[in-house]
């Protein structure tokens, strides 16, 4: 994939992070809870996880944050132009790490949502 396309995707992920993080923090501050401490109780957290909107928000936040963070890490590692082989190695490693991180995070969201 071209670098300019990855950069555009990264900009979209930054916007997604801002929106979903604002919604996520609002659910802990004032949306449907009486206070911050109440939002952290087990029953409150599990109750929110059962709502589709929370699952969608956390899923988008997870994917956007993982892409943004790993794209930045990839760029830092590629700044020392060592050739095409290293470029492929770093790109492949960050992709695999991203798949593992998103997979584990989605697994956690699904298990919490369905109470398994």
General description of the model:
By secondary structure, the protein is mainly α. The protein has one domain: 3 helical TM bundles of succinate and fumarate reductases (Up-down Bundle). Helix content is 84%, strand content 0%. The longest helix has 31 residues, at 84-114. The model has no long low-confidence stretch (mean pLDDT 86).
Q: Please give the number of β-strands.
A: 0
Count of spatially separate domains = 1
> What is the name of the CATH topology?
3 helical TM bundles of succinate and fumarate reductases
Major sheet: size, sense and barrel closure?
A: none
How many alpha or pi helices?
A: 5
Intertermini distance: 38 Å
Rg, rounded, reads: 17 Å
Mean pLDDT: 86
Portion in beta strands: under 5%
Order of helices and strands: HHHHH
Structural class of the helix and strand makeup?
A: mainly alpha
- CATH class categorisation: Mainly Alpha
Report the CATH architecture: Up-down Bundle
Keywords:
116 residues, mainly alpha, 3 helical TM bundles of succinate and fumarate reductases, 84% helix
Summarize the structure.
With 116 residues, the protein is mainly α.
Topology:
Elements: H1 3-29, H2 36-39, H3 42-49, H4 52-78, H5 84-114
Helix pairs in contact: 1-4, 4-5
């Amino acid at each position: 994939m071209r670098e300019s396309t990855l950069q555009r995707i990264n900009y979209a992920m930054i916007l997604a992070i801002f929106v979903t993080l604002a919604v996520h923090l609002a659910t802990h501050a004032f949306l449907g809870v009486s206070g911050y401490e109440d939002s952290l109780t087990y029953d409150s957290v599990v109750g929110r996880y059962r709502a589709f909107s929370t699952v969608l928000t956390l899923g988008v936040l997870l994917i956007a944050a993982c892409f943004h963070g790993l794209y930045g890490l990839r760029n830092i590692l590629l700044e020392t132009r060592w050739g095409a082989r290293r470029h492929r190695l770093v790109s492949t490693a960050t992709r695999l790490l991203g798949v593992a991180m998103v997979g584990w995070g989605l697994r956690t969201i699904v298990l919490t949502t369905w109470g398994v």
